[in-house]
Design goal:
Layout (H helix, E strand, L loop, with lengths): L1 E7 L7 H17 L4 E10 L2 E8 L2 H17 L11 E5 L12
Antiparallel strand pairs: 1-3, 1-4, 2-3
Helix pairs in contact: 1-2
Length: 103
Amino acid sequence: MHATIRRYDAIDQTRTTELVKKAENTLLPSLGKLPGFKDYYLIEAGNGAFSSVCIFDTAEHAEESSRVVSAWVREEKLQTALPNAPITGGTVVVHNTREFATA
């Protein structure tokens, strides 16, 4: 399993609602179609900062997600809303998922 973490600082705070809506409506469906896709999380950290976490089966799958996200930022004209996008990624070495019982 491989994770890619992006932290976006100095986001134009007048565009956070737009960013969240576009991520949900256009980015997430694109990521979900990629091979090896497992999970995507977008976290609002406050003060103009967001983080995202993508989980994929392999490093190669995660690398493709970076290309998809870069194209999405350009296509949605979010370059000024997301001025900084440092990326960290690596192999997940510890993981646990809680199984929820269904009634």
